[in-house]
Amino acid sequence: MAVSWTPHRFSGGLLALDVANTVVLRIDPRRTFDRFDDPAEIPRFAAAATRFRREELGGRVLAVDDAVAIRPTVLAIREDTDLLFRHAVLAGSMDTGQLAGLLSSCAAALDGTGEAIGPATPFGDPATPIRFETAVAISALSLLDPPRCARIRICAHCGWLFLDRSRNRSRVWCDMAVCGNRTKARRYYRKHTEMADA
After folding, report:
1. 0.70 exceeded by pTM
2. How far apart are the first and last CA of the chain?
3. What gap in Å lies between CA 179 and CA 173, rounded to an integer?
4. How far apart, in whole angstroms, are the C-alpha atoms of residue 119 and residue 40?
5. At 63, which helix (H) or strand (E)?
6. Would you say 133 and 110 are in contact if contact means Cβ atoms under 8 Å apart?
7. Rounded to whole angstroms, what are the CA distances from 18 to 48, 56, 79?
8. Using CA atoms, how far apart are residues 163 and 103, in angstroms rounded to an integer?
9. How far is CA 96 from each of CA 36, 106, 142, 192, rounded to the nearest angstrom?
C-alpha cells in the first residue's frame, strides 16, 4: 500500500531527519517498520520533500532516476544519520566511529556528482534538479554544524528525530498536532480511568 506523504511525515525539520524518520517506531522493535521497504516510495517521498523542504533545498527539485539503484546509498545515509545524532542527543556527544560512518556514506552519495555548493547555495543551482541521495547527504552533513546539532531532539512520543526551532528549545514532540495530542489524550484517559476506579 502506498504511503501518504503528508506534512506530518516531514516533522523532522530537515530533509536528512525526515529520511531518518522513514523507519517508523524505531524505538519499538515489535512494531517498527520501514517506509522505504518498497523502493517505489523513494521517488514519491522525493516529490513530497521537494514541496515540504523547498526552503531548505533553495527551490531545487529532488530527482530519482533509479530508486532500486540508489536505495542502498539512501539507507546507509539514513541509518548513519539516525545512529550518530540519536547517540549525540542521548549522550551529549558524538561518537567518532559513528561520525566516520556518516562521512563515508555521504561521500558515496556525493562522489562524482560535480555539484557546486556554497554558503549562499548549499544545495547548488536552483535552476536544475538535484539527485535525491546527493541532497540527503548535504542535508545530513549540515547537521554537523554545532548550533544546529544542539537543537536535535528525540520525540517523546514516537521516537523520531526532529530539529527544535522553538525560541526556548523546549519542544518535546516532533509534531504537536499528532504526537503531542496523542500523549495528552493518553494522560487524560489514564487520569479519568484512575478516578473512575477510585
Report:
1. yes
2. 45
3. 6
4. 33
5. strand 62-63
6. no
7. 11, 12, 12
8. 20
9. 27, 15, 17, 47
DSSP secondary structure letter of residue 7:
G
User: What residues pair up with 24 in beta bridges, in sequence order?
Assistant: 33
pLDDT at position 16 is 98
Residue 126: all three cell numbers together: 536552483
pLDDT band at 169 (very low <50, low <70, confident <90, very high): confident
Instruction: State the cell numbers at 60.
Output: 531545487
| Confidence band, pLDDT 50/70/90 cuts, at residue 186 | low
Distance, in Å, from the CA atom of 76 to the CA atom of 195, rounded to the nearest integer, reads 48
Q: Which residues contact 91 (CB under 8 A, 6 or more apart)?
A: none
DSSP of 102-124, one letter per residue? HHHHHHHHHTT------SS-TT-
Q: What grid cell was written down for 11?
A: 516533522
- How many Cα neighbours within 13 Å face the side chain of 19? 30
DSSP class per residue in 15-49: HHHHHHTTEETTT-TTT-EETTSSTTHHHHHHHHH
DSSP for residue 8: G
Distance CA 28, CA 168 (A): 29
Q: Amino acid identity of 61?
A: V
